[in-house]
């Protein structure tokens, strides 16, 4: 399925071609090389004071860890996401070593996930970020430290035909990609 973005100005093909599928190829197994590559891209994301507050829990399909993560996906996401080759739980540190609140952690983790997403796309993989999750369940199932907060789960895999989905998942899969126009999101100055 081609969902290349229609843009107001040229952007990198890897960005224009990125979209978040729900239909994954259940025969595809993500390689250790692919996982290392996308996690390495995330590792090199910018972060405030180079704090790198993000943490990743990687669960490949078929593993016990994958079952633990999938158990924490809310209804709709739980219906399609377990078919992905891997589920990556993104957590962040709540506090610095001195006990002060880690105010930039969510932003920094967003930058890391953006890098992860684009690297996956460059490798011919697709990702889908999900916040429709049971944060506490995933935190407990993974036995995460109390100083970590679960933010989201990213599915990773090869896209498959939309017709393997049904109902609302299928309808969302075949919808065209849309974004707000630049004049709706640029508040001051001109693009």
Summarize the structure.
The protein has helices at 13-16, 32-43, 64-70, 75-80, 105-122, 135-142, 167-174, 182-185; strands at residues 54-60, 86-93, 126-130, 148-157.
Describe the structure in your own words.
By secondary structure, this protein is of the alpha+beta class. The chain has one domain: NADH Oxidase (3-Layer(aba) Sandwich). It is built from eight helices and four strands, in the order ααβααβαβαβαα. The chain has helices at residues 13-16, 32-43, 64-70, 75-80, 105-122, 135-142, 167-174, 182-185; strands at 54-60, 86-93, 126-130, 148-157. It has a four-stranded antiparallel sheet with strand order 1-2-4-3, with helices on both faces. α2 crosses α5. The two termini are 30 Å apart. The mean pLDDT is 95.
Query: What is the architecture at the second tier of CATH?
Result: 3-Layer(aba) Sandwich
Overall geometry comes to globular
CATH class call: Alpha Beta
Say how many strands there are: 4
Quaternary structure classification: single chain
Mean pLDDT: 95
Write the layout of secondary structure elements.
Layout: H1 13-16, H2 32-43, E1 54-60, H3 64-70, H4 75-80, E2 86-93, H5 105-122, E3 126-130, H6 135-142, E4 148-157, H7 167-174, H8 182-185
Antiparallel strand pairs: 1-2, 2-4, 3-4
Helix pairs in contact: 2-5
What are the defining features of this structure?
191 residues; alpha+beta; four-stranded antiparallel β-sheet; 8 helices; 35% helix; globular
């Amino acid at each position: 399925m081609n969902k290349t973005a229609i843009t107001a100005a040229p952007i990198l093909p890897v960005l224009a071609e990125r979209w978040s599928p729900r239909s994954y190829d259940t025969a595809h197994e993500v390689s250790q090389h692919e996982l290392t590559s996308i996690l390495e891209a995330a590792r090199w994301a910018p972060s405030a004071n180079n704090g790198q507050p993000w943490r990743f829990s990687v669960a490949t399909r078929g593993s016990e860890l994958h079952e633990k993560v999938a158990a924490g996906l809310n209804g709709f996401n739980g219906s399609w996401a377990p078919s992905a080759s891997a589920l990556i739980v993104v957590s962040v540190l709540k506090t610095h070593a001195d006990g002060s609140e880690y105010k930039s952690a969510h932003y920094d983790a967003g930058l890391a996930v953006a890098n992860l997403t684009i690297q996956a796309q460059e490798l011919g993989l697709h990702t889908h970020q999900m916040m429709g999750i049971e944060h506490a369940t995933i935190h407990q199932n993974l036995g995460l430290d109390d100083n970590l907060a679960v933010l989201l789960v990213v599915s990773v895999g090869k896209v498959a035909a939309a017709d393997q989905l049904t109902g609302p998942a299928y309808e969302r899969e075949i919808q065209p990609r849309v974004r707000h126009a630049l004049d709706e999101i640029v508040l001051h100055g001109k693009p």
